[in-house]
From TrEMBL:
The lineage of its organism: Bacteria, Pseudomonadati, Planctomycetota, Planctomycetia, Pirellulales. Residues 1-33 are annotated as: Disordered. GO terms for molecular function: 8-oxo-7,8-dihydroguanine DNA N-glycosylase activity; class I DNA-(apurinic or apyrimidinic site) endonuclease activity; damaged DNA binding; zinc ion binding. One of its GO terms (biological process) is base-excision repair. This is Formamidopyrimidine-DNA glycosylase. Its cofactor is Zn(2+). The keyword Aminoacyl-tRNA synthetase does not apply. Its EC number is 3.2.2.23, 4.2.99.18. It comes from the Bacteria. Residues 32-147 form the Formamidopyrimidine-DNA glycosylase catalytic domain. Belongs to the FPG family. Keywords: DNA damage, DNA repair, DNA-binding, Glycosidase, Hydrolase, Lyase, Metal-binding, Multifunctional enzyme, Zinc, Zinc-finger.
Length: 317
């Protein structure tokens, strides 16, 4: 199959670099989305089979993160138990532990799940010491402290996590997307961020996938054709899988890291995100535009992303 990924020399130009220096704070900050959280999950998989020796909250001057139950109860419930599996639901890492307990870690804005030493000690929020072949610790680090760690029963996972989330973005079908959104008057870009519809897509990958699908992000859901829903689903899957292959996107603020405290690589492959003013890497006729939808930046090419039909240069997928 022909690659849907376009390579652009323009982005390395001095002009492009100057623009990237001017990008707003919000656009330099990566919020972990499905590819980043999936990379964290895969990175910590070696802890499966390890025994938990202690759950510790390191000394931290910052406002405490939301943790339930409190650290002493969490330690009591987990000490001596083995880790059974590490999964993911949307943008959460789910650590399954003996006795049907699940630790749900939601990184939110700046959280990281790590095996290696963290970027800073002052923002280290949780240390789980382990006995096993894979190393001796699992860490949760969070600069802003908006992330959460919860220890849940299967029933609680059902009501507090599963009931609030739509089908995973890697698994959802075009028919499911259309069934959920086909009557909605929301703009497609805004609707894709709704975790109750599809779990895992955030601001960055919504913009990227609509670029590959060749669809204008302002298109109302109820105006999208069956063929367009299919293109959205296919582009979603390809963009997310490709981003996982590159271990996610580490933007200018450098916050996002994989489980070994290394950078992701997909930021070098962004086509439209935070590239306002750059020439479109696909059609070269358009200039990437930034607009605001539901208080979030959206980036797109006004020439080859259309509300109807398909621009001749969009690879049909
Ligand atoms: Zn274009």
């Amino acid at each position: 199959m022909q690659s849907i990924f376009y390579k652009s020399a323009q982005r390395l130009s001095p002009e492009g670099n100057r623009r990237s220096m001017q990008r707003s704070r919000a656009e330099r900050e990566s919020v972990p989305e499905l590819p980043e959280v999936e990379t964290m999950r895969r990175g910590v998989l070696p802890i499966v089979g390890s025994r938990i020796d202690a759950v510790i909250r390191p000394p931290c001057d910052r406002k405490p993160i939301l943790m339930t139950p409190r650290i002493d109860a969490m330690d009591r419930r987990l000490r001596g138990k083995h880790i059974v599996d590490v999964g993911r639901r949307g943008k959460r890492v789910m650590i399954n532990i003996e006795d049907e307990q699940t630790m749900v870690i939601e990184p939110r804005m700046t959280g990281l799940v790590l095996l290696a030493d963290p970027p800073t000690l002052e923002h280290l929020r949780l240390r789980i010491t382990l006995s096993g072949p894979a190393g001796d610790q699992l860490l949760f680090w969070d600069r802003r402290g908006l992330g959460t760690v919860r220890l849940l029963t299967p029933k609680q996972v059902e009501t507090l996590v599963d009931a609030k989330l739509g089908v995973d973005a890697l698994a959802i079908t075009a028919e499911q997307l259309k069934a959920k959104l086909g009557k909605s008057q929301r703009a497609i870009k805004v609707a894709l961020l709704d975790q109750a519809v599809v779990a895992g897509v955030g601001n960055l990958y919504a913009a990227e996938l609509l670029f590959f699908a060749g669809i204008d992000p302002r298109t109302r859901c109820d105006r999208l054709t069956q063929v367009q829903w299919r293109r959205i689903q296919a582009a979603m899957r390809q963009v997310l899988e490709e981003a996982i292959r590159y271990e996610g996107s580490t933007l200018g603020d450098g916050t996002y890291r994989n489980a070994l405290n290394g950078e992701g690589g997909y930021q070098a492959h962004h086509q439209v995100y935070a590239r306002a003013g750059d020439p479109c890497p696909r059609c070269y006729d358009g200039v990437i535009r930034r607009i605001v939808q539901a208080q979030r930046s959206t980036f797109f090419c006004p020439v080859c992303q259309q509300k109807r039909g398909l621009h001749r240069l969009v690879v049909p997928i």
